[in-house]
Write a structure and sequence with these properties.
The protein has 361 residues and is of the alpha/beta class. Helices cover 45% and strands 11% of the residues. The chain has one domain: 2-enoyl-CoA Hydratase, Chain A, domain 1 (Alpha-Beta Complex), CATH 3.90.226.10. Strand 2, helix 1 (29-43) and strand 3 (50-55) form a beta-alpha-beta unit. The radius of gyration is 20 Å and the shape is globular. This is Enoyl-CoA hydratase/carnithine racemase.
Length: 361
Amino acid sequence: MSEFVHSSVSNRTGFITLDRPKALNSLSLAMVRDLAAALQAWRDDAGVDAVVIRSSSEKAFCAGGDIRFFYDVGRAGVQGGSAQLEDFFTEEYALNHLIHFYPKPYIALMDGVVMGGGMGVAQGGPDCRLRIVTERTKMAMPEVNIGLFPDVGGSYFLSRAPGQLGNYLGLTGLTIVAADALYSGLADYFVPGADMAALAALIEATPGAQLRQAVAAFVAPFQASAGGSVLQAERATIDRHFGAGSVAAIMASLAADEGAFAQKALKAMATRSPLMMAVTHELLRRGAALDVAGCLRMERTLVRHNFEDGEVLEGVRALVIDKDNAPRWKPAALAEVTAEMVERFFAPVWPDYAHPLRHLA
């Protein structure tokens, strides 16, 4: 394992600890490879009955991919790409697929910041996952804020959120808390931060084969204490506005609503990449009809187009490099985004037999 990913086996449970606190556990290519190596080794290991993934810090589970790395290698590469960049997204999406279909209980302690790539390594599939949040959890798919789109399987899990919640989360990129994550189906259980140490002790002391049941029993008393969900309270508003047929129609609907919730969403969308909001809207529409592998293959195609286009490089420049928070989006206005501009992001990059994720089933 690298210096930022630690793995061990104890009491028939495999433990993965993300330990890059200064970068909020942002994923590097080496970290993606370490995660995949551990999970592949334990998948068929009769001595491992369950897996727990956690952070060394309560500030963040994982804030996403290392966007400074994206910027550096993207700018250095030919036509916005490089071998390292290609490898990162191919291997990260393959890791997301591995986690989704993992055959053993997969417990993610989603304490602190959980965004982007952090969602990809936490979500898992319904047959294996157990996702725990706390009052410190700050969850988002904020990719449109940097000129990207909700990837790492976002086209799958956001498109399957209740009603129009997926469109709301994907198009605004706004952060939600534990109660919202539970209501959206993006988390399973709530545990107060003060009780996380006791949960950790229980996990360490429980044999892997009994872990899922033991954790479920431990968290049961806390489920009424997660607080109220803003998304639940505003569900009718979200469905009404974000069910409109296009990003322009959504923003027009929001603009006609003087309520604080609608105006906050509209204000956020006004700062996002117009092109990538339109691409995201189409991505989620298509993702609803695809399986996990199909969604990840679609996202892999889009990410190649995105770096060639350069929108993400401009977004990262404004947010992280120059920190002027004034991205020069192309096009600058939503009215200038055409259907042809959106469609070209979905154009095949490789023939099916050569797609880098062709082996996903």
